[in-house]
């Protein structure tokens, strides 16, 4: 037994030694392969240190029914320091701050601000966002992010606080990054120009006063940040998207070397009539912890004390929602689609496939239009930059040029688009003639659509105008199944027209191939034929028979031989050529 233990110990030591030698070799190899004229830079401005903040959060609902709860909550703070690399006078991200923290308690850049761009790191993502909000680089120097970290890889983060400081260490701005349980997010950029004025309610005053005993923070003129802003993001099903927020935030670092930083942020939700509805507060319950000074035993003690907090955050939210719904009987507001100021949920694999088809379909429409279009296309797909879709330049051709912006608000647009036979109908129902709360697409100058979707578009051309595509009988049967399976998309959350139980409206129009189908079946879209047909058919069957859940169709596909329906073998893609 002792010999086996000794052999195992030696093997483990040799494995670790080999790993570190390999890392050293790879690192030296990469460093030698790096061009010699690339220089890294980092701001020399002194910043606060990373801290761990044991906290408590409280929610006090005041109107229309009283309800409250409180639970422990863990927050971590990380300085976001300007850094990067320079080559031939051009600055670009170094990627050194893609992750911050220790292996057991860290944050990742990909989880914050706009989707994607994790390779840029925290600082460059923050700088890009602030520039998009018309904030000059000279207006700020660094930031301090207070957020719920990933504990062993898991985190649920309802709200993160970005404290934006200038070179003199003055708190100039704050960003409140709000996430809901549907995977959507909204970044509120605040400059402190509007003084906070919470509703004058004895309940809110008593709540704030009783909770204030948890933190003893010196109150000074520059230690508070207050602001008021309009609400435009759906967070709770028991509150509408109307109203406003008021923030009172304690500056955790009145000075860069402040010895006792504390978190103390109070957010008050007001109705559109300026009545206080809810007071939420996050405040420190103890002294901030420096992870560098924990040591091995201190780290183990800390992990045993806090590992479970992040895991139970979401179940706690669900539990309180059940209490509010069943005991307080509050009205439930269905989730509206996000506005242009918010960030939609992450796309599914099917929606990513449909995005690729739609992007090239849109590009073909622009090439075949009778006038030149410059379309700015924002896809709502992570790591996909804004696309400029323009026709190919033809020397000597002078035609009128129109500018248009098309912005997909949520990836759900792609999975709803395929249900419509005509592209113009899809845009009408998903963008132009629908309730704002149902809108999955936004576009400027929609009056230009008839010019883009004219009779000259390539999707409407006759078959003899383009090279023919040969398909096998089996492929034609698969396409026939797709056409017969087409059905209307799921009803929107908010009905555009009044519903009557005495009237039943059915769409009796024939279901030909849609314009998107015809593009994929044609010469220019044949590269997507197999994947598109499989994806669309699965979504149609899910809508018809599986309550809109394509995962159920996928399970059935695994249980039976679905080769006829879904082309599970890669060779099936070779038939459409």
Give structural notes:
The protein has 577 residues and is an alpha+beta fold. It has two domains: 51-80 and 130-326, no CATH class; 349-492 and 510-575, no CATH class. Helices cover 30% and strands 22% of the residues. The chain is built from 14 helices and 20 strands. The strands form four sheets. Strands 12-11-10-8-3-2-16-15-14-13 form a ten-stranded antiparallel sheet, covered by helices on one side. Helix 10 (473-485) runs parallel beside helix 12. It is globular and about 75 Å long. The termini are far apart. Residues 1-35 and 198-221 have low confidence and may be disordered.
The general outline is globular
The main pleated sheet reads as:
10 strands, antiparallel
Q: What is the arithmetic mean of pLDDT?
A: 82
Radius of gyration, in angstroms, nearest whole number: 28 Å
Runs in which pLDDT lies below 50 for 5 or more consecutive residues are 1-35, 198-221
Q: How large is the count of helical segments?
A: 14
Total beta-strand segments: 20
Quote the beta fraction: 15-25%
Spatial separation of the terminal alpha carbons? 65 Å
Spatial strand sequence of the major β-sheet: 12-11-10-8-3-2-16-15-14-13
Helix content: 25-40%
Structural class: alpha+beta
Counting structural domains, the number is: 2
């Amino acid at each position: 037994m002792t010999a086996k233990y000794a052999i195992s110990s030696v093997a483990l030591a040799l494995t670790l030694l080999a790993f570190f030698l390999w890392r050293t070799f790879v690192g030296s190899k990469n460093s030698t392969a790096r061009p010699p004229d690339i220089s890294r830079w980092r701001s020399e401005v002194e910043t606060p240190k990373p801290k761990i903040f044991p906290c408590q959060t409280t929610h006090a609902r005041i109107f229309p029914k009283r309800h409250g709860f409180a639970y422990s909550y863990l927050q971590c703070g990380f300085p976001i320091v300007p850094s990067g690399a320079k080559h031939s006078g051009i600055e670009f991200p170094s990627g050194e701050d893609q992750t911050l923290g220790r292996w057991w308690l860290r944050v990742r850049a990909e989880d914050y601000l706009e989707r994607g761009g994790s390779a840029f790191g925290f600082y460059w993502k923050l700088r890009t966002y602030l520039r998009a909000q018309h904030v000059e680089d000279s207006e700020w120097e660094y930031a301090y992010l207070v957020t719920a970290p990933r504990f062993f890889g898991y985190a649920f983060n309802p709200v993160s606080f970005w404290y934006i400081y200038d070179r003199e260490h003055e708190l100039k701005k704050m960003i409140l990054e709000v996430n809901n349980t549907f995977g959507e997010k909204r970044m509120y950029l605040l400059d402190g120009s509007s003084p906070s004025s919470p509703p004058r309610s004895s309940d809110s005053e008593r709540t704030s006063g009783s909770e204030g005993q948890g933190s003893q923070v010196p109150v000074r003129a520059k230690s508070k940040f207050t602001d008021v802003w309009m609400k435009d993001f759906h967070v709770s099903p028991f509150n509408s998207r109307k109203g406003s927020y008021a923030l009172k935030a304690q500056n955790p670092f009145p000075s860069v070397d402040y010895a006792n930083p504390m978190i103390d942020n109070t957010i008050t939700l007001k109705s559109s009539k300026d009545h206080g509805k809810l007071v939420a507060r996050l405040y420190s319950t103890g002294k901030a912890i420096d992870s560098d000074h924990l040591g091995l035993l201190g780290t183990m003690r800390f992990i045993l004390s806090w590992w479970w907090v992040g895991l139970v955050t979401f179940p706690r939210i669900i539990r309180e929602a059940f209490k509010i719904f069943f005991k307080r009987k509050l009205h439930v507001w269905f989730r509206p689609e996000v506005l242009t100021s918010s960030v939609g949920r992450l796309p599914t694999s099917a929606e990513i496939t449909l995005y690729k088809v739609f992007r090239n379909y849109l590009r073909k429409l622009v090439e075949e239009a009778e006038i030149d279009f410059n379309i700015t296309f924002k896809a709502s797909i992570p790591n996909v930059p804004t696309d400029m879709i323009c026709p190919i330049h033809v020397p000597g051709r002078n035609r009128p040029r129109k500018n248009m912006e098309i912005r997909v608000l949520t990836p759900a647009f792609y999975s709803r688009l395929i249900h419509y036979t005509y592209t113009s109908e899809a845009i009408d129902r998903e963008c132009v003639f629908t309730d704002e709360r149902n809108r999955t697409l936004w576009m400027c100058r929609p009056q230009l659509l008839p010019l883009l979707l004219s009779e000259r578009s390539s999707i409407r051309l006759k078959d003899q105008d383009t090279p023919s595509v040969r398909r096998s009988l089996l492929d034609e049967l698969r396409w026939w199944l797709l056409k017969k399976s087409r059905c209307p998309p799921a009803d929107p959350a908010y009905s555009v027209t009044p519903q009557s139980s005495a009237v039943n409206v059915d769409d009796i129009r024939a279901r030909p191939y849609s314009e998107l189908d015809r593009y994929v079946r044609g010469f220019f879209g044949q590269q997507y034929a197999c994947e598109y047909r499989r994806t669309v058919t699965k979504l149609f069957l899910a809508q018809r028979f599986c309550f809109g859940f394509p995962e159920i169709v996928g399970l059935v596909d695994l249980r039976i031989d679905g080769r006829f329906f879904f082309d599970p073998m890669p060779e099936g893609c070779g038939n459409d050529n």
